[in-house]
């Protein structure tokens, strides 16, 4: 337990961290990777270049400072991060390295303002916070290994099948190379895929949502090709598309994640997918249809056009077979062929007025959404404008967690 003096010092630094947090975390990663380049085998290089990892860590450090006297209030955040850590292979021995470099970065950025007393208080607080993460992650490693067909690190899987779903998205069906059973998962969870890519100095690990229902002898991930943008094209995703073939092996972590469908409820669910954000929602949809066939589902796919619309025919077929499934496609830039074939239900973007038309029970439904950052912010704001309660709204960012109310809308 922290004494009151330490708590007071930590809380007094919260305003400074709110202003300088991202500068501190950027410096932290620079210092840590210079001293320990081997950690680049674990961290996502693309998120580092985009600044998302730095912002996410800054948000976490600030939250810890604000809640230092009631850390139990940030346990949900701790567990969310711990899921990612377990799937990446973060171990207790990594925490002293992080602590040493985080304190050094605080001192480096704040200079004389970071007195010995402040650094000492943060060192003590970091020890408490690190112990909390280590304890939660220890339980997660043990649970992953103890599960039927489970394991606690990375396991070899073979690509049993590779299926093109759209111009951008390809699915990979992964089966354990050793032929043994694989652990089940909760729809919405993800796995980490570890690859050694020729010409790359460090190992790359990426997390991909599982896109089919649990209970199969395979895991399915559906991967979007990354092209253009302000950072180099997706190294791992494009490698999977271009180089990984049926029969090839990859290393896979046990399923993880807390963005999961509530299977203890019979409330209607509304699944709002932006582009490749459909992947965890496909898993949810398939599982609910298999196990709760009477439960109402509204599935909404928001994509540019039919060329990049993955799983369309699959969902349409299920829409005909399952009266409880209500499916809608929203195209922001439909092609002439899309218009002629009537492949979508709405042109433009998801709006409050349209959602209120297609969702039978607006305030009584659970909402799950995933997609690009701008889509996420828009959907969240729309649901709040519709009067949907916070406890009925669930979402997940691909990559480090972000504050959905501060995400900038992407240019269209």
From TrEMBL:
Q: Where is this region: Reductase?
A: 149-412
Q: What is its EC number?
A: 1.14.12.17
Q: Which cofactor does it need?
A: FAD; heme b
- In this UniProt entry, which residues are annotated as the site Involved in heme-bound ligand stabilization and O-O bond activation? 29
* Ligand binding (FAD): 190, 206-209, 397-400
The note on cofactor binding and number reads: Binds 1 FAD per subunit. Binds 1 heme b (iron(II)-protoporphyrin IX) group per subunit.
Positions bearing the site annotation: Influences the redox potential of the prosthetic heme and FAD groups: 84, 396
* Leading EC class: oxidoreductase
Annotated Globin domain residues: 1-138
Q: Which transformation does this protein catalyse, written as a reaction?
A: 2 nitric oxide + NADH + 2 O2 = 2 nitrate + NAD(+) + H(+); 2 nitric oxide + NADPH + 2 O2 = 2 nitrate + NADP(+) + H(+)
InterPro entries attached to this UniProt entry? Cbr1-like_FAD-bd_dom, FAD-bd_FR_type, Flavoprot_Pyr_Nucl_cyt_Rdtase, FNR_nucleotide-bd, Globin, Globin-like_sf, Globin/Proto, Hmp
Q: Where, by residue number, is the active site?
A: 95, 137
Which residues are NADP(+)-binding?
A: 275-280
The family database entries (PROSITE patterns) matched by this protein are listed as:
FAD_FR, GLOBIN
Q: Domain FAD-binding FR-type, which positions?
A: 152-262
Mind telling me which Gene3D superfamilies this protein's record contains? Globins, Nucleotide-binding domain of ferredoxin-NADP reductase (FNR) module, Translation factors
Q: Which Pfam families match?
A: FAD_binding_6 (PF00970), Globin (PF00042), NAD_binding_1 (PF00175)
Q: Which keywords describe this protein according to UniProt?
A: Detoxification, FAD, Flavoprotein, Heme, Iron, Metal-binding, NAD, NADP, Oxidoreductase, Oxygen transport, Transport
Q: Which PANTHER family match?
A: FLAVOHEMOPROTEIN
Q: Which family does it belong to?
A: Belongs to the globin family. Two-domain flavohemoproteins subfamily. In the C-terminal section; belongs to the flavoprotein pyridine nucleotide cytochrome reductase family.
NCBIfam families in alphabetical order: PRK13289.1
The record's domain comment reads: Consists of two distinct domains; an N-terminal heme-containing oxygen-binding domain and a C-terminal reductase domain with binding sites for FAD and NAD(P)H.
Q: What is this protein called?
A: Flavohemoprotein
Q: Which organism is it from?
A: Bacillus carboniphilus
